[in-house]
C-alpha cells in the first residue's frame, strides 16, 4: 500500500511540475505576444507619422503652386489695368468729368 502511495505521490509531484512548466511557458508566450503587439504598434505609428508628413508636404507644395498661380494672375490683371489706364486715361477722365457735370 505504501508503494502505491509513493507512486501516487510521485505522479502528483510530476503533474505539479508539468503544471508549473506549463504556467512558465504560458507566461513566456504571453510576454512574447505582448512584445510583438507593442513592436507592431510602434511600427504602425512610425509608418503613419511618415505618411502624414508626406501628405502635409504634398499639400504644402500644392498650396504654394496655387498661390503662385494666383499671384501671377493678379499681377497680369494689374498690368492689364495699368496698361488700359495708360492708354485711355484722357478718355476716362473726360467721361468721369462729364458724369460729374450731369449730376
Protein topology:
Blueprint: H1 2-101
What descriptive keywords fit this protein?
mainly alpha, 103 residues
Distance between the termini: 133 Å
% residues in beta strands: under 5%
Rg over alpha carbons: 43 Å
- Number of helical elements: 1
Q: Could you say which overall geometry the principal axes of the C-alpha atoms support?
A: rod-shaped
Mean pLDDT: 93
Q: Helicity, in percent?
A: over 70%
Q: How does the helix and strand content classify structurally?
A: mainly alpha
Query: What order do the SSEs take from the amino end to the carboxyl end, as H and E?
Result: H
The biggest sheet, with number of strands, parallel, antiparallel or mixed sense and barrel status, is: none
Strand runs, count: 0
Low-confidence stretches: none
Amino acid at each position: 500500500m505504501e508503494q502505491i502511495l509513493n507512486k501516487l505521490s510521485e505522479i502528483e509531484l510530476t503533474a505539479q511540475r508539468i503544471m508549473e512548466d506549463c504556467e512558465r511557458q504560458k507566461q513566456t508566450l504571453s510576454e512574447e505576444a505582448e512584445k510583438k503587439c507593442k513592436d507592431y504598434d510602434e511600427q504602425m505609428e512610425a509608418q503613419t507619422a511618415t505618411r502624414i508628413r508626406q501628405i502635409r508636404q504634398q499639400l504644402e507644395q500644392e498650396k504654394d503652386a496655387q498661390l503662385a498661380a494666383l499671384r501671377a494672375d493678379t499681377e497680369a490683371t494689374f498690368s492689364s489695368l495699368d496698361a488700359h489706364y495708360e492708354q485711355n486715361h484722357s478718355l476716362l477722365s473726360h467721361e468721369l468729368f462729364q458724369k460729374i457735370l450731369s449730376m
